[in-house]
Amino acid sequence: QSRSSAASDVYKRQAADLKERAGEKVEELRDKAGEKIQEATEKARDIKDTAAQKAGEVGSNISDKASELKERAGQKVDQAADKAQDLKEKAVEKTREVQELSLIHISEPTRQAEISYAVF
C-alpha cells in the first residue's frame, strides 16, 4: 500500500501542479487578450479619427469647389449681363439712326401722272 500511496501522492501533486500552471496560463492569456483588446480599441479610435479628419477634408474641398463654381457662375452671369447691355445699347443706337431718317418728297410737275420718290 505504501507504494500505491506514494504513487497516488505523486499523481495528486502532478495534478495540483498542472492545475496551478493551467490557472497561471489562463491568467496570462486573459492579460494578453486584455492587451490585444486595448490595442484594437486604440486602433479603431485612430481609424475613426482619421476617417473623420478625411471626411472633414473632403467636405472642405467640396465646399471650396462649390464656392469656386459659384464665383465662376457669377462671373459668367455678369459677362452675360454686360453683353446684353451692349446689345441693348446697340439696338437703341440703331433705332435712333432709323428715326433720324427723313422722307423727302420729290414730284415731277412736267409729267401728267405725278411720280414720287423717297430719298433717305
What does the overall shape look like? rod-shaped
**Radius of gyration from the CA trace?**
51 Å
- Summarize the biggest pleated sheet: 2 strands, antiparallel
Structural class: mainly alpha
Query: What is the strand tally?
Result: 2
Helix fraction by DSSP (H/I, runs of at least 4): over 70%
Average pLDDT for all residues = 84
Q: How much strand content do the residues show?
A: 5-15%
Distance between the termini: 150 Å
Spatial order of strands in the largest sheet = 1-2
Low-pLDDT windows of residues: none
* Number of helical stretches of at least 4 residues: 1
Keyphrases for this structure?
120 residues; mainly alpha; 1 helix; 7% strand
How would you describe what is shown here?
The model has no long low-confidence stretch (mean pLDDT 84). The radius of gyration is 51 Å and the shape is rod-shaped. 82% of the residues lie in helices and 7% in strands. The protein has a two-stranded antiparallel sheet. A hairpin with an 8-residue loop joins β1 (104-107) and β2 (116-119). The protein starts with a helix and ends with a strand. It contains one helix and two strands. With 120 residues, it is mainly alpha-helical. It has one helix at residues 2-99, and strands spanning 104-107, 116-119.
